[in-house]
Write a structure and sequence with these properties.
Radius of gyration of chain A: 25 Å
Distance between the termini of chain B: 77 Å
Number of strands of chain B: 15
Structural class of chain B: alpha/beta
Radius of gyration of chain B: 26 Å
Distance between the termini of chain A: 27 Å
Largest sheet of chain B: 7 strands, mixed
Number of helices of chain A: 13
Largest interface: A-B, 29 and 32 residues
Structural class of chain A: mainly alpha
Helix content of chain A: over 70%
Oligomer: heterodimer
């Protein structure tokens, strides 16, 4: 992090004519550190320290109430890896990531293509697709709790109109994770849509003109120009989306409050419950590091995939 | 010149912004600290009182506090109402750990066994309470005992709020299941009760006559299950580090009765709490398994209703219940003057708890429930006897209202209720979960060093 910021500064200093006093560079360095300090302090205090302290806690039996704190070795990790609830929660999060990422990427692409193709009133589409993204998760949850109400909700009215039996959207453990997916798609698809739209606008018109001259129709253009040109945007969007989906907590917690079951408890919620409801900070820290390991694996996988793509091209 | 001035102004802006930001952070932090401490420091007679009672209960409690502090009382009370449930207990624990808890708080009695061992609570001085007219004899035995750990009293109950049976007297009268006093006919076995429910079903126009909603609500599943279970005269014991002592046959029989009732004809098979309540509150069904705390909401719905204890179907009168109880969150340094006022405040609230009965709860303080005034209060007096037969959650650090024990129970049992099959397997799954919790060390006392 710091290196990226320092390099241009150092380069600027080097390229300057050396007519100033010898105190110059060290003063410059001091100033640059001073500018970095606010960020570095916040970074150390709120990211590095909790990370290190959390790792330490995961080896103790520290309680939220201040009790405990003695060294527990690998006990917490051993318990976590044999805890069926932990695996269940991890599976829920991973499954949610799979079933939410796919529509969040595909729908965003379709929406962006439609808007970019020149639907009338583009600004209105852009606005209305993006607007839900600006809402707080609490607001989104409240709205969808109403929509999913089994008796008076809009979701069941729609189902009724097309002759499908009403569902207990949030109460039935067989469907409530998908209800969360639907709400999440509505909420966040606008962000991916915007990224796609920006990428679409970056494709030079000449490509299409040349293709048209060669007699390519709209579908041919889509397959041979638009989609290949969007490849790098897609990689970025999928990456961001996977990370966002893995963080599932707010909307699931808020919409399923009181009806949370083993099948719908995301791992982040289990971390919260172990620590703040069960008072077991040590154990909760251990689970979060197990989850962290998963994220690192996903991250490494993505990076290698991207590097390979870059080398190929 | 122009260039320099923009540079200067940018730098000035940055410095200014940093200064303002820093100052805001400092002053915000400091003033927040100051506010919390100052409120109680300023007025030595002011007590901080935390409750988890919102909605109608919160209003009733506010009235009681106003009454207690009104007529020249020696104390003033600042009530803080926090959201019911898990977050409340987290906040209370953190306040006690942080050394600045309220002078008085309300907890569920069932949570005390999990809470006291961390040194989070101070015990009550029985002598001091007795001087103010509050002693063991003034409470039903089970309710008083629930506040004790070892020989010390950690919680003084305000009420018992048991699970009860609500019925619609109009519908039940037409079905011919009321006795001459207009009370629900006694039933003494599952068969008799099922028969009665069937009779009520003749009058509910195709709607299942019994309302019971449980989907996703482990607490409400446990309430009815444990009522039937304890009606067998059985109990559950959860010895720390050991294995759960559950009578499997009785547990399966209790669960199977629930499955029988949830057959789609007697009661809707898959219903949630709110929907079941709505069925009854709109006059569509004739019977409802619920808690006394729903008295007010059903009353406001304007539907005719009465309440009674859940019939004794297995020989022993029993009902699942919990209590709202007064506790003294642990103070690092006890302010004797404030503590004295706290005792007086609690005694005043208990003596004024007739008001609390209007919210449906059964006051724990016997002089209130034995008063002629209370005898005239309906339907409250129709179920006051339940206070003599209450059964709390089995004592363990992980049990109690809003604990994850109930959600564990729900997760193990719900599939059996939804499908009407597999009761023995569900009880097995429940046992496995409890055994797992028993193997976990109590997080508020992980080294096991606490003694009452």
């Amino acid at each position: 992090m710091t290196a990226a910021v320092e390099t241009p500064l150092a380069r600027a200093a080097a390229s300057r004519p050396r007519t100033t006093t010898t105190a110059g560079p060290s003063r410059e360095r001091l100033v640059s550190w001073a500018f970095l300090a606010p960020f570095l302090i916040a970074f150390a205090l709120f990211l590095v320290w909790p990370l290190v302290h959390g790792l330490y806690l995961s080896f103790t039996n520290q309680s939220l109430t201040g009790a405990g704190g003695s060294w527990a070795g690998l006990d917490n990790y051993q318990e976590a890896l044999t805890d069926p609830t932990m695996w269940r929660a991890l599976r829920t999060t991973v499954w949610f990531t799979v079933v939410s990422t796919i529509p969040l990427v595909l729908l965003a692409l379709v929406m962006a293509l439609l808007v970019h193709r020149g639907l009338p009133g583009q600004w209105l589409w852009r606005l209305s697709f993006f607007m839900p993204f600006l809402l707080a998760s609490t607001v989104v949850s409240q709205i969808w709790v109403w929509i999913f109400n089994p008796d008076i909700g809009a979701a069941n009215s729609v189902l009724g109109a097309i002759g499908i039996e009403p569902l207990a959207w949030l109460q039935d453990p067989a469907v409530n994770l998908y209800a969360i997916v639907i709400a999440t798609v509505w909420w966040t698809v606008g962000f991916n849509f915007l990224l796609y739209l920006a990428a679409l606008q970056n494709i030079p018109d000449q490509h299409y003109e040349a293709a048209a001259l060669d007699g390519a129709g709209p579908w041919r253009q889509l397959w041979s120009i638009t989609l290949p040109q969007l490849n790098s945007a897609t990689v970025l969007i999928v990456m961001l989306q996977i990370l966002a989906s893995l963080k599932l907590f707010d909307q699931a917690y808020q919409m399923l409050i009181g009806v949370s079951t083993d099948t719908t408890r995301p791992i982040v919620q289990y971390i919260y419950e172990s620590g703040f409801v069960g008072y077991r900070f040590g154990y909760s820290a251990a689970i979060s590091y197990v989850f962290f390991a998963l994220i690192v694996i996903v991250g490494v996988f993505q990076m290698t995939a991207m590097n390979r793509r870059r080398n190929l091209s | 010149m122009a260039r320099r001035s923009t540079m200067l102004s940018r730098r000035g802006l940055l410095t200014g912004a940093a200064a303002i930001g820093g100052a805001a952070a400092l002053s915000g932090g400091l003033s927040a600290c100051g506010a919390a401490g100052a409120a109680s420091a300023a007025n030595p007679d002011q007590l901080q009182f935390w409750t988890l009672l919102s909605g109608g209960d919160g209003g009733t409690m506010a009235d009681m506090v106003a009454k207690a502090t009104g007529s020249g009382a020696a104390y003033d009370v600042k009530t803080t109402t926090l959201v019911w449930g898990e977050p409340y207990y987290t906040k209370l624990a953190m306040a006690a750990t942080g050394g600045r808890p309220p002078e008085l708080a309300i907890m569920h009695a069932s949570r005390v066994p999990g809470y006291a061992p961390g040194g989070l609570l101070d015990s009550w001085d029985i002598g001091r309470l007795a001087e103010l007219g509050v002693s063991q004899d003034d409470f039903p035995e089970e309710i008083w005992k629930k506040g004790m750990i070892g020989d010390k009293v950690f919680a003084v109950a305000l009420d018992a709020h048991p699970t009860v049976l609500m019925f619609n007297p109009e519908i039940c009268d037409k079905a011919g299941v009321l006795d001459s006093d207009g009370r629900l006919r006694e039933t003494e076995s599952p068969e008799e009760f099922i028969d009665l429910v069937g009779q009520v079903g003749g009058q509910t126009k195709g709607v299942p006559p019994l309302s019971y909603g449980y989907l996703g609500d482990g607490s409400h599943m446990f309430r009815l299950f444990y009522t039937f279970y304890t009606q067998h005269g059985a109990s559950m014991t959860f010895p720390e580090g050991g294995r759960a002592e559950i009578d499997d046959d009785i547990a399966v029989e209790s669960l199977e009765l629930m499955q029988t009732l949830l057959d789609g004809k007697l009661a809707v098979q898959r219903n949630d709490y709110a929907a079941a309540l709505a069925e009854f509150a709109t006059g569509r069904s004739g019977l409802l398994f619920t808690g006394v705390w729903e008295l007010r909401s059903v009353k406001e719905a304007g539907v005719p209703f009465d309440m009674t204890a859940i019939p004794t179907l297995f020989g022993t009168p029993a009902a699942y219940a919990d209590s709202h109880a007064f506790v003294l969150p642990h103070q690092n340094q006890v302010d004797e003057h404030r503590r004295d006022l706290t005792y007086r405040f609690v005694a005043d609230l208990l003596k004024g708890s007739y008001e609390w009965a209007t919210a449906g709860h059964v006051p724990a303080y016997l002089p209130v429930t034995q008063s002629p005034e209370y005898a005239k209060l309906t339907p409250q007096s129709h179920y006051a006897d339940v206070a003599e037969r209450v059964n709390y959650d089995p004592a363990a650090w992980f049990t109690g209202s809003a604990s994850n024990f109930h959600s564990n129970f729900g997760n193990a049992i719900q599939p059996a209720l939804m499908t009407g099959k597999g009761a023995p397997g569900a009880i097995d799954a429940f046992r496995t979960r409890v055994d797992r919790l028993l193997k976990t060390q109590n997080p508020v006392d992980p080294d096991g060093t606490w003694t009452p």
